[in-house]
Write a structure and sequence with these properties.
The chain is mainly β. It has a domain of 70 residues. The chain has two helices and 20 strands. The longest helix is centred in the N-terminal third of the chain and has 20 residues.
């Protein structure tokens, strides 16, 4: 009986050793192969658990917080180098969802607030913002099911380029304008909460240029300031400049 117990114990230890030996393997070329588990320092909690083929992650990878709660699940397709990622808060609500391609963010990524409400969407190409980014208001009231846009902006290769808009919490347009190479260009309009025009701005080459006009709620003009390549002009300097523009047949806003 004692001999049988010893044999069983030896077999059990041997099987455990074989199972353990199958983790975290590197082949003769130094490439990760098979199942890998990485732990937090001085902890039995894994940082991640997943599998590799020829040093490339494949299949499902699960990442954990030090609390042992799931932090992220990534589903890898080593054939086309794409990965679908689901990120989570420690309260188990989803934090973000999107695609990696060649380990870079790609296509539309959707982000959420900790209470589970949609926070913003952004579009990537080869790891940089490229396309529309939309930010949403996140209501404090859990019973508020509204989905209201805070702002919209367009990017090209990581730089703001194209139309942009901002909105008040009730959906009324707050601002509209255009970006060129990351800076306002041309006319920018800002609105009162009622929807009437508040400020008319003009931009050129990253600087204020032309007449800036402020309006009251009823549409009455309250004041204006003229800028020439970022510098405000007034008094005699303004008169001389306007006279010169007139003589040259140039619109002072251009």
């Amino acid at each position: 009986m004692i001999m049988k117990l010893r044999i069983v114990l030896i077999l059990f230890v041997s099987c455990c050793s074989i199972s353990f030996a199958q983790n975290n393997q590197i082949d003769s070329k130094g490439r990760k192969q098979g199942e890998w588990v990485k732990f937090y320092p001085n902890s039995k909690v894994p940082v991640y658990v997943g599998q590799f083929i020829d040093d490339k992650p494949t299949g499902k990878f699960t990442y954990y917080y030090p609390s042992n709660k799931v932090k992220m699940i990534v589903k890898h397709n080593h054939i086309d180098a794409s990965s679908e990622a689901f990120m989570y808060y420690e309260n188990k609500n989803i934090l973000a969802h999107g695609i990696y391609r060649n380990q870079e963010k790609d296509s539309v990524w959707t982000h959420y607030a900790e209470n589970g409400r949609l926070s913003f969407k952004e579009t990537y190409k080869k790891g940089t913002l490229h396309g529309k980014k939309t930010i949403f208001y996140v209501p404090y009231d859990p019973n508020d099911k509204s989905l209201v846009i805070l702002s919209e902006k367009t990017f090209e290769n990581g730089v703001a380029n194209g139309p942009t808009k901002e909105f008040f919490p009730d959906g009324v347009l707050k601002m509209e304008g255009n970006y060129v190479d990351g800076a306002f260009d041309g006319i920018v309009k800002r609105y009162h909460p009622s929807g009437s025009l508040h400020i008319l701005e003009r931009w050129k080459n990253r600087k204020r240029h032309g007449w800036w006009i402020t309006y009251g709620e009823g549409g009455k003009e309250l004041g204006r300031v003229y800028y020439y390549m970022g510098e405000p002009l007034e008094g005699e300097d303004l008169k001389k400049h306007m006279q010169k523009m007139k003589e040259l047949g140039i619109n002072p806003n251009n």
